[in-house]
Amino acid sequence: MISADSLSDYTLIGNGHSAALVSRIGSVDWCCWPRFDSPAIFCRLLDSEHGGFFQLAPDTDFRVDRQYVDQTNVLETTFQTDSGTLRLTDWIPALCPLLPETYWSTSLIRRVECIAGQVSLRVHFRPSFDYARKSVSFRFDDLGAIAQSGDESLVLASPTRLTAEPRSLVGKHAMVAGDSHSFVLSYGKTSD
């Protein structure tokens, strides 16, 4: 499996209010939400041991090809394994400036499609609120999981069953040609 070794291994996705860096290995390793100047919720780019990330990738060795879709900020990553091919499409939807800021929802959408053969998808979700300075707790609901730290939370709608490990959630999902699944990560903050 390849790794992200330098800044050139990353591509940027965003919506004009926030952005994320996605590595060649399908991992969101940097993201500050809800705005560019907010504390990082994923920061593996700075600290590979404690910094958080959100990775979707085959659970075996793979080759990678990446491109932006047409003239957009939508990233398409294609993983080629010996048994099949997965396509990961990542984007952060635009916020609606006509609505008050309290109605804005900061989200990351990650769609995985098996376009040939069969591939085992590995999910690894490890948020690290405030540059990994705050502790995180997890709970599960019908749609997936919620990561909570103080008044901040990340809700991960996941089609893959996730299990808790120290500081993270992991899961595997067998996919065959024609399968398509979306993972939606949303940020929220409780008001005082």
Task: Describe this structure as you would to a colleague.
With 192 residues, this protein is mainly beta. It is 2% helix and 54% strand. It contains 1 helix and 15 strands. The chain has a 15-stranded antiparallel β-sheet that branches. The longest helix is centred in the last third of the chain and has 4 residues, at 129-132. The radius of gyration is 16 Å and the shape is globular. The N and C termini lie far apart (45 Å).
Major β-sheet, in short?
15 strands, antiparallel
What fraction of the residues are assigned to beta strands by DSSP? over 45%
* Class of secondary structure makeup: mainly beta
- How many distinct beta strands? 15
* Share of helical residues: under 10%
Radius of gyration: 16 Å
What's the tally of helices? 1
What ranges have pLDDT less than 50 throughout 5 or more consecutive residues?
none
SSE topology string: EEEEEEEEEHEEEEEE
Shape designation = globular
Main traits of this protein?
192 residues; 15-stranded antiparallel sheet
Secondary structure layout plus pairing:
Blueprint: E1 10-14, E2 19-23, E3 27-32, E4 40-42, E5 53-58, E6 63-68, E7 75-80, E8 84-91, E9 106-126, H1 129-132, E10 137-140, E11 144-149, E12 152-157, E13 163-165, E14 168-176, E15 180-189
Antiparallel strand pairs: 1-2, 2-3, 3-4, 3-5, 5-9, 6-7, 7-8, 8-9, 9-14, 9-15, 10-11, 11-12, 12-15, 13-14
